[in-house]
Amino acid sequence: MNTTRTIVRLLGASALCIGFVTSALAADKVDDAALRTAAGDYFEVIPSAVPAVKGNAVTHEKVELGKMLFFEPRISSSALISCNTCHNLGMGGDDNLETSIGHGWQKGPRNSPTVFNAVFNIAQFWDGRAADLKAQAKGPVQAGVEMASTPDRVVTTLKSMPEYIEHFKKAFPGEADPVTFDNMAKAIEAFEATLITPSSRFDQFLEGNDVILSDQEKQGLALFMDSGCASCHNGVNVGGNGYYPFGVVEKPGSDILPANDKGRFAVTHTADDDYVFRAGPLRNIELTAPYFHTGKVWDLEQAVGIMATSQLGTELDEKSISAIAAFLRTLTGEEPRIVYPILPVSTHATPKPVAMTIKN
Ligand code: HEC
Ligand code: HEC
Q1: Is the CB of 83 under 6 A from ligand 1?
Q2: Which residues contact 299 (CB under 8 A, 6 or more apart)?
Q3: Backbone angles phi, psi at 145, to 5 degrees
Q4: Does ligand 1 have an atom closer than 6 angstroms to the CB of 284?
Q5: How far apart are CA 70 and CA 105, in angstroms?
Q6: Could you tell me the CA-to-CA distances from 231 to 153, 206, 225 in Å, in that order?
Q7: 97 Cβ partners below 8 Å, 6+ apart?
Q8: What CATH number corresponds to the domain at position 218?
Q9: What is the domain range of residue 310?
Q10: Domain count across the chain
């Protein structure tokens, strides 16, 4: 069954046509200059240079170390799971699973977001519970369902390999004891700051290239702004910078929004934050299916239709949904070319892998 069609049928066929879009769709041709000016009020181009990170200078040495640690399975207790397991840098920076699978084959509660451009998000995780990438990186290492290790075990592991000690010394010069859990997180943060995807076709349009987008993609952009998507999904990451209830107008079904995950409520404990989540950053969205924090939706058109009904109370027709999805696919940027790091060999002092018993 074609789910998009079904949803469109359920919603009826009337398109929301207001403001800019009315003329854009009616004419089936968009005024490029006006569209670019309107878009400039909502969105920013991804910079081509690595952004600065607060309190953590992004040096070459730190980035190289952070890359090793990102690919390092021995910071998990099984010595099998690395950050790259769930944030595969060859697959859009996530795992393309409904929800992630970690230590002992356990299924985690949420879908893995991409690490690409994560440096631009207001805070990390679907509920924003980590202030920055440095704070974030300490979480999965210790999470029982992810890497199931401890800070002590990680430090012992890293100190057991002389090559790592050298790398930490170079990355954190002048520190008496550079191999720390905190510095592991800082190095990973510095590496992640380099995982940006500039030069998407959308960015090229913002920068003045009129012919880089098709008419349909331009109509999708116009609709994205005029129907209200851009009021939550804006800024450099086209999202990732604010928190909103999932289901502002109408709660999606419990398959997509189950009652047990109340999102930001668990962070702030205020009733206003019931089922509040960070507006998904939409950069590279075509690479990161399945969608939503539950990962229940595999089809981008279907995700767009759900957003229209749940967040805007709007019924979008099939043509509008296709146009918006086509626009969203222009947000795919140039992915970083990563040379796979060669990792130091274990020594007799390296903690042995903990056998994983299957827990599901
Ligand atoms: C077992 C799978 C798994 C592993 C291993 C893992 N992650 Fe994640 N990661 C996730 C999931 C799932 C989330 C979302 C969790 C949430 O929002 O509650 C996440 C969230 C993130 C985010 C937030 C992105 C955003 O947009 O909010 C970053 C950054 C990240 N992980 C980096 C890392 C790093 C660095 C490591 C290694 C130290 C790592 N992850 C290891 C599954 C994993
Ligand atoms: C009121 C704010 C708001 C509006 C308006 C809104 N969104 Fe969202 N959007 C969110 C939130 C919050 C999420 C995260 C939902 C969750 O918890 O999974 C999200 C998630 C998404 C996702 C999935 C992201 C991912 O990585 O899985 C897509 C795609 C999306 N929105 C597109 C749209 C489109 C297209 C529109 C307009 C039709 C729109 N949104 C309107 C707040 C909004």
Answers
A1: yes
A2: 3, 4, 289
A3: -85, -5
A4: no
A5: 20
A6: 45, 18, 7
A7: 111, 112, 290, 295
A8: 1.10.760.10
A9: 3-46+198-331
A10: 2
CA 69 to the chain's CA centroid = 19
Let me know whether 173 and 211 are in one domain: no
Q: Say what the alpha-carbon torsion angle 346, 351, 352, 353 is, to the nearest 10 degrees.
A: -100
Residues 267 and 230 in one domain: yes
Dihedral class, residue 14 (left if φ above 0, else alpha if ψ from -120 to 50, else beta): beta
Q: How far is the CA of 242 from the centre of ligand 2 (A)?
A: 11
Q: Cis omega before residue 290 (within 30°)?
A: yes
pTM of the shown model: 0.92
- The answer to whether the CB of 248 is under 6 A from ligand 2 is yes
- pLDDT tens figures, 133-184: 999 999 999 988 898 899 999 999 999 999 999 999 999 999 999 999 999 9
Q: How far is the CA of 278 from the centre of ligand 2 (A)?
A: 9
**Does residue 85 share a domain with residue 134?**
yes
Structural tokens at position 323: 């146009």
C-alpha to C-alpha distance for 140 and 108, rounded to whole angstroms: 11
> Which residue do the tokens 């890293």 mark?
158
Residue 146 annotated as catalytic: yes
232 known ligand binder: yes
Q: Whose CA is nearest to atom 13 of ligand 2?
A: 279
